[in-house]
């Protein structure tokens, strides 16, 4: 029973973190978005849900994207039941999203988040919004 309760507490914490990030993000004008960048990834071995939630869904990464990345519209992060994290990023265009990728990886502001990600598990796709 203890494992279930701990797991449930962790899931509730992650959902709360994601909902908090999404609540802030809901103010974004999604009518500007022309492309969705859909990223899936796993955390490195030993990284807790709480640590990833704080780094990934915290305000630092989103604030940096808003301030310094042309074409950025909005970003949401969530955790699936199977332990895979998803990141949904709205861009004005696919070109803007692709152009930002190398900058995002090299940007020291994003390092605390990226240091927790298992890079071999990352998958990125782009879809046009119709």
How does this model look, in words?
The chain has about 130 residues and is an alpha+beta fold. The chain has a single domain (about 1-130), classed as Alpha-Beta Plaits. Helix content is about 45%, strand content about 30%. It has helices spanning about 1-25, 50-55, 60-70, 95-105, 110-115; strands at about 35-45, 70-80, 85-90, 115-130. A four-stranded antiparallel sheet has the order 2-3-1-4. A hairpin with a 5-residue loop joins strand 2 and strand 3. It is globular, with a radius of gyration of 15 Å. The model is unreliable at about 1-25 (pLDDT under 50).
**Helix/strand class:** alpha+beta
Strand neighbour order, sheet with most strands:
2-3-1-4
What is the highest CATH level, the class? Alpha Beta
Low-confidence stretches: 1-26
Please tally the helical runs, counting DSSP H or I stretches of 4 or more residues. 5
How many whole angstroms does the radius of gyration measure?
Answer: 15 Å
Strand element count? 4
Number of domains: 1
Mean pLDDT: 85
Give the SSE layout:
Layout: H1 2-25, E1 35-43, H2 49-57, H3 59-68, E2 72-79, E3 85-91, H4 94-106, H5 111-114, E4 117-128
Antiparallel strand pairs: 1-3, 1-4, 2-3
Helix pairs in contact: 1-2
Which features does this protein show?
single chain; 130 residues; alpha+beta; Alpha-Beta Plaits; four-stranded antiparallel beta sheet; 5 helices; 46% helix; 28% strand
